[in-house]
Amino acid sequence: MRSPDERVARNKREARNERRRDQTRAEILETARDVVLRSGLARFTLADVADELALTKPALYYYFDSKEALLFELLLREWVEAATEVEAAVDGTESGVDAVEQLMGTVFDRYRNRLELFVLFFKMGPGGDFEGVIGPEELERIRPVNDMLYGGAEARLRADQRTGGFPKERDPRRFAFTAHMAVIGLLNMMAIAASADDPLVHSEEDLIEDLCTTFRDAALRGGAK
Predict the structure, then answer these.
(1) Which residues of the chain have pLDDT under 70?
(2) Which of 37, 115, 135, 208 has a Cα-to-Cα distance from 164 of 20 to 30 A?
(3) Burial tier of 18 (Cβ tally within 10 Å: 0-12, 13-18, 19+)
(4) How far apart are CA 152 and CA 96, in angstroms?
């Protein structure tokens, strides 16, 4: 039987090892993102990541057992970071319409000057270049991210419904989701224009302002005046 001092020492060693593993995983994911952005998804290999980090492929497989597993973790990390920004922005609002506007503006601001990153992480989703990355188990891990993205706006819109500030016939969760998809559509058009070196006629500021105004008007329509 181990003595109390031995157990304490073992727990400290395990905690240090866990921190080192977490740090190494984070470094692998950061490097993998750089490699994908530089080389593209089609040419991405684990060997490239291992070379960048001066790791052997078996060492890399200790942390990620396949290219698809690494890509999913990379995808999930990006979505969690984006959702965390949205959650923090929405937490600073009181009304549902303000929450939706913060959701839209936060997503837009995250990617407007990083369109390559935006394109990368939406090509990874269903129907993209790596459709096989996401299966039932992965979807279960993605669903809580959706709550981070939409939960705050949904809760505020439901509160507004109770006081007449948001139409009762509208579904708050669907409304927040639709607002998010509208911004994704705008970013996609910006990415297409950038890839064709053919700038959009309208300014980015005017486009996102029009989107936010459209959703604000729709949220207030039928509510208390």
Answers:
(1) 1-2, 5-17, 123-132, 222-225
(2) 208
(3) exposed
(4) 9
- Looking at residue 132, its amino acid is G
**Torsions phi, psi of 145, nearest 5?**
-65, -35
Residue 78 near residue 121, CB atoms below 8 Å: yes
Cβ–Cβ < 8 Å for 153, 96? yes
Amino acid at 221: R
Q: Two tokens at 11?
A: 């727990």
Half-sphere exposure of 93 (CA within 13 A, CB side): 24
Whole-prediction pTM: 0.82
Alpha helices in the chain (DSSP H): 4-39, 46-53, 57-63, 67-91, 96-111, 115-123, 136-162, 172-195, 204-220
Report which residue type is found at 158: R
Contacts of 184 (CB under 8 A, 6+ apart): 107, 122
